[in-house]
């Protein structure tokens, strides 16, 4: 059994004080549990999903990008018009859109949403996927291109006079001034686990994103990216975004029954290459994030309070796939463990996509926010983490093993 840490009332020095929640928008009912053969947008479903995020109290939604998926800019614009508060995050690959055009598109989205636009830059972890849209740049150079891309985005939004540029990847003459965003700038997020990703993210990103990892490992990665930021002379450090796939039920025991059922169905779906891009993820992954996820899964299935890695193992770590398993209280306490390590943007999206988004909004987010409000009001931690032990208690470990 994992040894329980001592939960004192003192708030850790590393804890984030402000926390916001992200989900991923789904365009149709197809899931890893129940794949539906479709490449289209179910507009009624999409509207219902986005409304569930708004009603559930999420702060952001990610609009993913793939070579065979809907265009993230267009979908983000739709999200902006269907909601009043949710901030759309456009996933963007630098190889797909010239940086000055991307700056124009993002600024337009930002104006239409009155300052809600965010962009998440994907340098590209798979040579094969990049090649599907004509990008043959080696992986290490893709991050160098991202660095140049970030500079040009910010210059396009801020320069008050025309400027020219001749770099390694982009060249143009006498551009500008560009179309301005609603405010001074637009937040830029970068993710990845390679050395190049850390360097670019630490030096330039407003947000650096991770998949769910064991607590101590993630804390080491946060310290690494922040050290790079400080070495670059930054006084404002990148915010930390961490992603989980929670499996939640009324009790820990019921959650584990659901988890074992889910992982069997997800494994079958993946084996049949029946969902999304899974047919492209059958071989050893190139990206370091997936390699790390598989390494954690090989070492153990359970970490810390509630982190479960078998979902990563059965999908070959194809994207964010590590789960948090338990009752709403256990999962909320586990999220707070990551908040205490420095995560201030928490992405939670489920395997039963719409139902999970609704359940998280009703049962998980309020518990986390209640604890954060208690901390702000009293300067001390509440009792949620000390009372709902998850894997730090004997019963939870027994529930986890029952379905194996």
Automatic annotation (TrEMBL):
<keyword id="KW-0288">FMN</keyword>
<keyword id="KW-0285">Flavoprotein</keyword>
<feature type="domain" description="Luciferase-like">
    <location>
        <begin position="37"/>
        <end position="344"/>
    </location>
</feature>
<protein>
    <submittedName>
        <fullName>Alkanesulfonate monooxygenase</fullName>
        <ecNumber>1.14.14.5</ecNumber>
    </submittedName>
</protein>
<dbReference type="InterPro" id="IPR036661">
    <property type="entry name" value="Luciferase-like_sf"/>
</dbReference>
<keyword id="KW-0560">Oxidoreductase</keyword>
<dbReference type="InterPro" id="IPR011251">
    <property type="entry name" value="Luciferase-like_dom"/>
</dbReference>
<keyword id="KW-0503">Monooxygenase</keyword>
<dbReference type="GO" id="GO:0008726">
    <property type="term" value="F:alkanesulfonate monooxygenase activity"/>
</dbReference>
<dbReference type="Pfam" id="PF00296">
    <property type="entry name" value="Bac_luciferase"/>
</dbReference>
<dbReference type="InterPro" id="IPR050172">
    <property type="entry name" value="SsuD_RutA_monooxygenase"/>
</dbReference>
